[in-house]
């Protein structure tokens, strides 16, 4: 799998900035006619603290089917 695109994003100011991302991942060798395959969608939460030069992936999991 490889990163395809950000589907949606939100941010929240906490002790740093918490990003809630929904990302799509494409199958590496499964590209369709438009060059992008029907991949999987994942939810990720990342906390960034620029003053510490810190980025932490807090959660990465398949998105809930809705």
Automatic annotation (TrEMBL):
<dbReference type="InterPro" id="IPR046350">
    <property type="entry name" value="Cystatin_sf"/>
</dbReference>
<keyword id="KW-0646">Protease inhibitor</keyword>
<dbReference type="GO" id="GO:0006952">
    <property type="term" value="P:defense response"/>
</dbReference>
<keyword id="KW-0611">Plant defense</keyword>
<protein>
    <recommendedName>
        <fullName>Cystatin domain-containing protein</fullName>
    </recommendedName>
</protein>
<comment type="similarity">
    <text>Belongs to the cystatin family. Phytocystatin subfamily.</text>
</comment>
<keyword id="KW-0789">Thiol protease inhibitor</keyword>
<dbReference type="Pfam" id="PF16845">
    <property type="entry name" value="SQAPI"/>
</dbReference>
<dbReference type="GO" id="GO:0004869">
    <property type="term" value="F:cysteine-type endopeptidase inhibitor activity"/>
</dbReference>
<dbReference type="InterPro" id="IPR000010">
    <property type="entry name" value="Cystatin_dom"/>
</dbReference>
<feature type="domain" description="Cystatin">
    <location>
        <begin position="2"/>
        <end position="61"/>
    </location>
</feature>
């Amino acid at each position: 799998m490889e990163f395809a695109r950000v589907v949606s994003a939100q941010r929240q100011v906490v002790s740093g900035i918490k990003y809630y991302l929904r990302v799509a991942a494409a199958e590496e060798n499964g590209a369709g006619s438009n060059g992008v395959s029907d991949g999987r969608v994942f939810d990720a939460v990342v906390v960034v603290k620029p003053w510490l030069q810190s980025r932490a992936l807090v959660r990465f999991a398949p998105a809930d089917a809705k």
